[in-house]
Automatic annotation (TrEMBL):
This is Pentatricopeptide repeat-containing protein. The keyword Repeat applies. GO terms for biological process: RNA modification. The lineage of its organism: Eukaryota, Viridiplantae, Streptophyta, Embryophyta, Tracheophyta. The keyword ATP-binding does not apply. Pfam families: PPR, PPR_2. NCBIfam families: PPR (TIGR00756). PPR repeats lie at residues 80-114, 182-216, 284-318, 386-420.
DNA sequence: CTAGGGTTAG
């Protein structure tokens, strides 16, 4: 049947060929594409018919045969913007965003200007790569060509690109300036706010959207439910649930069921999560994983493991995400045996190769089950080690007080080319603090910012104050605190106060106490420690004064409590 | 001739 087209005269063949090829692209029929390609070559029709060649590139690109697409593209004597766009589209669609951006550049080097479709795909590549700068460049081109007026899709992709890059203000601004916006624009922004941990803003966008008379649909609901789960907005979650039921959206949108289970599970309402789960027509891997993860997150690791067993009995296939939660559950209850079985399945299915979370989940599981040598061995054999897997192992050694091993890990990870992060330094400073390793601690604190450009957090400062204080270097601790950008956290002052008590330092103690109650007037421990310091130094009048202050603070706090 | 935007579990 296909040959029928080939027997026609060359001049009439073009249009019909394109129809066939478009069909191939739509149905991802690579074979048919190959046959047509062969015939076109035989008839010598590819050289002077760029439209046909472009359609063929599109078939290869859509089917994921990017090598063929590129080869054909290279062989063309004449390439236009459509050829480039078809190729770029293929790269973006199959996860080669970097290559797509390279093509975009080369196309311009050849003197061709992108059209709306080219820009659309390129924007998507920027979003995937979190390349806001390149995205901004595309944005400028779009503005210059005045494309936003007639093309709502481009506008929405711009919002999505900025949102995915975490440039949320910019995304919001672009959305507000669009000549026309719809629920897709808002959904992109809402998802962005949610992904970057701004749940409240996400909800306020939903309100703004409704204010404009736009009503959320199934996709909007999935995003909103994710927000509700992440910030524990059970009330809103329940409201969305009733809306979904009222509109009877579940039968046609199975993803919504998963989102509902996840929302209830994250909010800790596991009974409702189970109810919704049981009401699903066919609970799939995602729904099961959401439930398992919910149980783990809310301290019911045994139930999580029960779920996992049931899931296996039902013949469902757990995947990398499921295993990550199951391994966490194993770590929580010390189920090394189940963990080991899961490990074997993971190896058999080759899941470690393309998942960067699972490796550290394994190390963490063995660590928590006190199988440290096994954890270390697993880490060594990971196809891709990362900072998370090393942190997990180091935390395990630190937990057992094995400071030498922690320090050895720190060297090892760097020799493997992996940079430490803020968590690594927390572990390091903690172990130094607990082992009186003053010089080492100071060295780590120094290099974390100088060599690794990690801004010390309150936790890091607290570790250092603790380390210096415990070892009697109170003056150095004071100097450090004075250097802090904002020493307005109680933990800092309690660390220093504790040290003052240990070393009977009334002077520094008084200073620390004053700051401590400035930060938190009702910090009872601060009063108690200060009273002890004064009493220990024989300063009874001062001790009495602080006792009176404490009584007043307690009284005031109790009263405030009543009012509330 | 290239297309059809925002989406769920760690």
């Amino acid at each position: 049947m296909r040959l029928k087209y080939m027997r026609k005269l060359p001049c009439s063949i073009g249009k019909e060929c394109i129809t066939v090829l478009r069909d191939c692209a739509l149905k991802k029929e690579l074979c048919t594409g190959n046959i047509v390609h062969a015939h076109l070559l035989q008839l010598g029709l590819l050289d002077n018919r760029s439209h046909v060649a472009n359609s063929l590139i599109d078939v290869y690109a859509k089917c994921g045969d990017l090598l063929q697409a590129s080869r054909l593209f290279q062989s063309l004597p004449y390439r236009d913007v459509v050829s480039w766009t078809a190729l770029i589209q293929g790269f973006v669609r199959h996860g080669h965003s970097q290559e797509a951006l390279r093509c975009y550049q080369k196309m311009q080097d050849e003197g061709l200007s992108p059209n709306a479709l080219t820009l659309s795909y390129t924007l998507r590549a920027c979003a995937r790569m979190r390349a806001a700068d390149k995205g901004q460049e595309i944005h400028d081109v779009i503005t210059k060509q005045g494309l936003l007026k007639s093309n709502i899709v481009l506008g929405n992709q711009l919002v999505d690109m900025y949102a995915k890059c975490g440039a949320l203000k910019k995304a919001h601004h672009v959305l507000l300036e669009l000549p026309a916006r719809d629920i897709v624009s808002w959904s992109a922004l809402i998802t962005g706010y949610a992904d970057w941990g701004h749940g409240q803003e996400a909800l306020s966008c939903l309100a703004d959207m409704q204010q404009e008379g736009l009503s959320p649909d199934a996709v909007t609901f999935t995003s909103i439910l994710a927000v509700c789960g992440s910030i524990g907005e059970l009330g809103m979650g329940k409201y969305i649930h009733t809306e979904i039921a009222r509109r009877d959206l579940l039968p046609n949108h199975p993803a919504l069921g998963n989102s509902l289970v996840d929302m209830y599970a994250k909010c800790g309402h596991l009974i409702t999560a189970e109810q919704v789960f049981k009401g699903l027509p066919v609970p799939g891997t995602i729904a099961w994983s959401a439930l398992i993860s919910g149980y783990v997150q809310h301290g019911q690791a045994d139930k999580a493991l029960d779920c996992y067993k049931q899931m296996e009995c039902k013949g469902l296939f757990p995947n990398a995400v499921t295993f990550a939660s199951v391994l966490k559950a194993c770590g929580c209850v010390g189920a090394a045996e189940i963990g080991g079985q899961v490990h074997e399945v993971i190896l058999k299915e080759g899941l470690l190769a393309n998942d960067y979370v699972l490796g550290s989940a394994l190390v963490d599981m063995y660590t928590k089950c006190s199988c440290l040598s096994k954890a270390h061995q697993v880490l060594e054999q990971l196809p891709a080690q990362n900072v998370f897997s090393w942190n997990a192992l180091m935390a395990g050694y630190a937990h057992q007080g094995r400071s030498d091993d922690v320090l050895y890990c720190f060297k090892q990870m760097q020799s493997k080319g992996i940079s430490p992060d803020a968590v690594t330094f927390s572990t390091l400073l903690n172990i130094c603090s607990h082992n009186g390793l003053v010089e080492e601690g100071q060295m780590f604190f120094g290099i974390m910012s100088s060599k690794f450009s990690i801004e010390p957090s309150t936790e890091h400062y607290t570790c250092m104050v603790d380390l210096l204080g415990r070892s009697g270097h109170l003056d150095t601790a004071v100097t450090l605190i004075k250097k802090m950008p904002a020493a307005n956290h109680s933990v800092i002052w309690s660390a220093l106060l504790g040290a003052c008590q240990k070393w009977d330092d009334v002077h520094v103690g008084k200073w620390a106490f004053e700051h401590a109650i400035q930060v938190d007037k009702y910090d009872d421990t601060a009063y108690i420690v200060m009273i002890k310091i004064y009493t220990g130094a024989g300063l009874d009048t001062e001790a009495e004064r602080v006792k009176a202050m404490r009584a007043e603070a307690r009284h005031e706090k109790a009263q405030r409590h009543c009012v509330c």
